[in-house]
Amino acid sequence: MPHSRPVGRFAPSPSGPLHFGSMVAALGSCLSARSRQGRWLLRIEDVDVPRSVPGAAEGILRTLEAFGFAWDGEVIWQSRRTAAYREAFARLEAEGHLFGCACTRKEMADSTLTRDGTRRYPGTCRAGLPAGREARAWRLRVPPGRIAFVDGIQGGIDEDVSVEVGDFVLLRADGLFAYQLAVVVDDAETGVTEVVRGADLLDSTARQILLQRMLAYPTPAYAHLPVATNGAGEKLSKQTLARSVEAAPPAQVLVDALDFLGQGPPPGLADCGLDEVWRWALRNWSLTRVPARRQAPCPAYA
Question: Using an 8 Å Cβ cutoff, are 141 and 167 in contact?
Fold first, then answer.
C-alpha cells in the first residue's frame, strides 16, 4: 500500500450484528491505516434502505467501541448522502454515459451469471427503449477495454467489464442509487487512499475503478482480505446464520482475527487484555503476511 499516511475505512452494511467475518475486515482495514499513522473512517452503508435492519447500525457502533476501535471524524451515513450521488449521476448522464432500461428481473432470468452472482446485462435497451416501454432503471454504458490493477493481497487482476458484467445499474427501479455508485462517490469525497476489505467484493473493484475514471476521481489502493467461511464453505453472513461477536470476549476475538489474517499472535496474548492486544497488533501488523486466498474456513465462529 503506497501511501505513507493513508486514509482507510470500514464500511459495514446494517443488515445485522457484526460477525467474525465483519471483525476481520474491520481489524485489517484499521491496522493497515493506523500502523502507518494514518486515518481510519467509519461509514454505514445503508444506501440499500430495504435491507437495513432497525437498530443494527447502532449495534455495530457499540460493538466496535467495545472491541477497542476508534475512528476519525463523524460516522458517514450513506442514507444521508443522496444529493452527492445525484450530482455524480447527473455528471455521468450529461456526458452520455447512462441509458434508461425497461428490463425486469424476470426478463433477465436466463442471462449469464457473472462471477459475483449477478446477471450479465445482454444490452436489450442500450440502443433505445423498446416501443411502448418506459425506463425502470438507469445503467452505465460500459465501454470495451480491460481494467487492470494490482491488489495488495490477491495480486494482479484484469477484467473487461463490458464482457464479464455488461452495462450495470446505477439508479435502481425503486429509485435508490446503487452500491457501486455510492461507494465510489463516498471514497472520493472523504479522501480514502486505500480500501482494505473482504475478497467477496473483489469482483466489484473493476466496476468501481471504471466509475472513478469516468468521474475523474483518484483510484485508491486495494487489498482484499480472505473471507471467513463456515464448515460448508459458505461466507459467514446473516444469511448463513453466522454468530454475532457482540457477546464474545473482545480480546480473544481480535487475537483469532489476527491469526486468521496470518499475523501469528503469540500464545496467551488474549489473556493480556484488550489494550495489549491492540498494542501488539499495531506494532506487528504486516499486509504481506495475509494469506493470498479469497476465502478460508473459520468454523469456530460460524
Answer: yes
List, for residues 116-148, the tens digit of each pLDDT value: 777 888 888 998 988 888 889 999 999 999 999
**Is the CB of residue 265 less than 8 Å from the CB of residue 259?**
yes
- Are 28 and 289 a contacting pair, CB within 8 Å? no
Helix (H) or strand (E) holding 196, with range, is: strand 194-198
Query: 40 φ, ψ to 5°?
Result: -135, 120
Q: Cα–Cα distance between 240 and 294 in angstroms, integer?
A: 18
Give the long-range contacts of residues 115-119, CB within 8 A, separation 24 or more.
115/164, 115/203, 116/200, 116/203, 116/204, 118/165, 118/168
Could you report how far apart the first and last alpha carbons of the chain are, in Å?
31
**C-alpha angle 133/116/196, rounded to 5°?**
120
Model confidence, pTM: 0.94
pLDDT digits (tens, 9 = 90+) for 187-216: 999 999 999 999 999 999 999 999 999 999
CA distance 22 to 13: 10
